[in-house]
Design brief:
By secondary structure, this protein is of the alpha/beta class. The protein contains 9 helices and 8 strands.
């Protein structure tokens, strides 16, 4: 049976917190609002850019959301890979999976164009069979739609897919799509969140995924 591995991007493939948090803090400063510590963004990412804006803006400033989103997208577009890098061991993992014939895809709530640009810049064209980001007409994770779309596009049965991510959102996506779920500990969330979400496996290093 052919297998596929579907990867979340931020906190799973790519350590992107500095670029995401830095871009958001730039937006906050443009409104004369107080910035957040970069580490605070660990709990804000994962549900898309609009959700990030809602969490980062202080209470009572909801009227700024649309303009803040526009400013964030403009800033992030030019700072997507200023500091972002693949996590240690990730490229070796992808190479090993591809070498044994597994299909690879990215399924993320990051805007689609940004996700494609980052995947190609940091991993090269052709590493992933496809990249599925947030776009109109396709529900976001934890809805199973983007994971199922990726599986269908690759011609792989969902039962032969493994969804790899660092948050409860990723685990819930996998469960809803009837895929195996692997939670990773090198990302933005902790073991307790992954366990509470019901991850099938939890790994501390990318190399462990090869032995599952």
């Amino acid at each position: 049976m052919r297998r596929a591995f579907l990867f979340d991007m931020d906190g799973t493939l790519v350590d992107s917190l500095a670029d995401i948090g830095g871009s958001m803090n730039h937006v906050l400063a443009s409104f004369d609002l107080e910035a957040h510590p970069i580490d605070a963004y660990r709990s804000m990412v994962g549900e898309g850019a609009r959700s990030l804006i809602e969490k980062a803006l202080p209470a009572g400033r909801e009227a700024l959301r649309d303009e803040a989103l526009a400013r964030y997208r403009a800033r992030y577009a030019t700072h997507m890979i200023a500091a972002s890098r693949p996590y240690e061991g990730v490229i070796a993992l992808l190479d090993a999976l591809a070498a044994r014939g597994d299909r690879l895809a990215v399924v993320t709530n990051k805007p689609h164009a940004a996700a494609v640009a980052i995947a190609e810049s940091l991993f090269g064209q052709g590493t992933f069979a496809l990249v599925v980001g947030e776009r109109e007409g396709l529900a976001k994770k934890p809805d199973p739609a983007p994971a199922l779309f990726a599986a269908a596009a690759m011609g792989i049965d969902p039962a032969a897919c493994v969804f790899v991510g660092d948050t409860a959102i990723d685990v819930r996506t996998a469960r809803a799509a009837r895929m195996a779920s692997v939670g990773v500990l090198w990302g933005f969330r902790d073991r307790q969140e992954l366990e509470d979400a019901g991850a099938d496996r939890i790994v501390a290093h990318p190399s462990e995924i090869l032995a599952l």
